[in-house]
Write a structure and sequence with these properties.
mainly alpha, disordered N terminus
Length: 235
């Protein structure tokens, strides 16, 4: 590989400008049968929509785990894969998924005066997560195949902090906030929000945008050698 650092800098600069277009380059790598996951005209609830996006984020957290293990063991790696994963976090998780929570869920809980402290904590963690993502994207985009102590230690700390925060963050939303959401809105409003979430997803990422992003994450997993589920089974 020739001159990897400038290429990664260019990648980060271009992805920041292109926004959601960042998802295009890797889509062809993973192509599961989407018909098994989504039927034509299927409607899903707001909670299911948000929770399946948490599933996607959890797969990215496994990619972060993988790179943290390499950093801890002082093993060389190509930072471009981590930079792409962090870009998905920025564009799909932070700018779309978390924006839905901040625009549609948290204000309704505050208005209903329910789980206000939880909503405030979750929003504070969103802000902290964006700071960590910016640091991960910057360091991963210029990471060399050679171990460099100072930058690598900083990158490892950012990954560790992100993982430490987002696993309990997701779990609390999935088991407390999302189940309670149905109780503070009418059935009609709840169903309408499900349609609104799908509409926004299609506007930002195209038809079946969620599944396209899943394809890209699967492609990263394959390139990193962590795609096969069986490898996580205890021996």
């Amino acid at each position: 590989m020739s001159n990897p650092v400038p290429n990664r800098r260019n990648f980060l600069r271009q992805s920041s400008i292109a926004g959601v277009a960042v998802f295009t380059p890797v889509l062809a790598i993973g192509q599961p049968n989407r018909d098994l996951a989504k039927k034509e005209g299927e409607q899903i609830s707001p909670a299911e929509d948000l929770m399946r996006e948490h599933g996607l984020l959890n797969r990215i957290l496994l990619i972060y785990d993988h790179h943290l293990d390499l950093l801890t063991a002082k093993k060389p790696f190509d930072g471009s894969m981590l930079a792409i994963a962090a870009d998905i976090v920025k564009h799909f998780v932070e700018e779309y998924h978390e924006k839905l929570e901040e625009d549609y869920l948290f204000p309704r809980f505050r208005k209903a005066k329910k789980l206000v402290s939880l909503a405030d904590t979750l929003q504070t963690q969103h802000k902290a997560g964006r700071h960590l993502t910016a640091k991960i994207r910057e360091l991963a985009a210029v990471a060399s195949l050679k171990y460099v102590s100072s930058d690598s230690d900083t990158l490892a700390d950012a990954l560790r902090e992100f993982l430490h925060m987002y696993r309990p963050h997701e779990a609390r939303e999935d088991t407390v906030l999302f189940p309670a959401f149905r109780s503070i809105v009418s059935p009609h409003e709840y169903d309408a929000l499900g349609e609104e979430f799908e509409k926004k997803e299609d506007e930002l990422f195209g038809d079946e945008g969620f599944f396209k992003v899943v394809d890209q994450v699967a492609g990263l997993e394959k390139r990193l050698g962590i795609y096969e589920l069986s490898q996580f089974t205890p021996k």
